[in-house]
# Entry
Amino acid sequence: MKKILVPVDFSDHTGITCTYALELAQKHGSEIMLFHTFFDQFLIAESSFPESIDMSTIYHEELLKEILHQAEKSLDTLFDQVMERINKEKYDKVTLSKKLTSGTTEHEIIMACEEYAPDIIIMGIKENGKSSDFWGRVSTYVINHTNIPVMAIPEIKKFLGYTEIIYAADLSEGNNMSIQKIVSILKPYSFRLHIVHFSEKKKRKGQDVKMEALKNTLTKDKLLNDITFDVVEVKDDVHQALELFIQEKKATLIAFQPQKHKLFYNLFTKNLTKKDLFVTNVPLLAVPE
# Structure
């Protein structure tokens, strides 16, 4: 894994996102690209325009210059701060670059993926206020429009490590390839992988059969070291069952295989939604087949 793309917004949350990128980059000897997109879409409906910008000035050339200047200044400051951490904390296998673009954040991230060809994207998601809606939407869009693994970091206070990994299996044929990709990404770490599927009672027997088939496949691929398999029967509250499982396993990362056009749908059961995953307060890793 040689390239890590890190979209940033210069909030306080950016620091923990960069920490996850630095830790992974150090293990793999990777380059990190700090990537920021600034807003320049002036010709839009007044009702959707940011309240902080006066509509009477939106066509003014000086406004765009100021936005560009502030974005460049913020990205340069962040770059210097991350470089200082690299030197101070001896991330000697990490190289750092930066890129600034203008436009719509989610679309620019996809364009950056096509040009930069990262091996993984690491980005933040927030839980409160408008930032939650914005970065939750951006993360969802990126996951749904790229075949690159995406790690989404919630607003947590410290690096949790990569030790206890939950893989939310939908028990499709693609799970095996996703698990192999997870093992490849986290290979430098000593970790335990908990493969789990949450099932309704009426479907439990069939899901047990599928889980056993997945276990047999992984046996053939020699991927069974430190892997557990669970089918958890759920009556009503899927989110509560997820939280209990996370607490029981002391999870530090939740991985899953996103389904195109059905993102976050039917990962465990039809009742577990994107919101359930985003509020777990545990980093997420979307690994496409």
Observations:
- Residues 61-88 form the longest helix (28 residues).
- The CA atoms of residues 200 and 234 lie 5 Å apart.
- DSSP finds eight helices and ten strands in the chain.
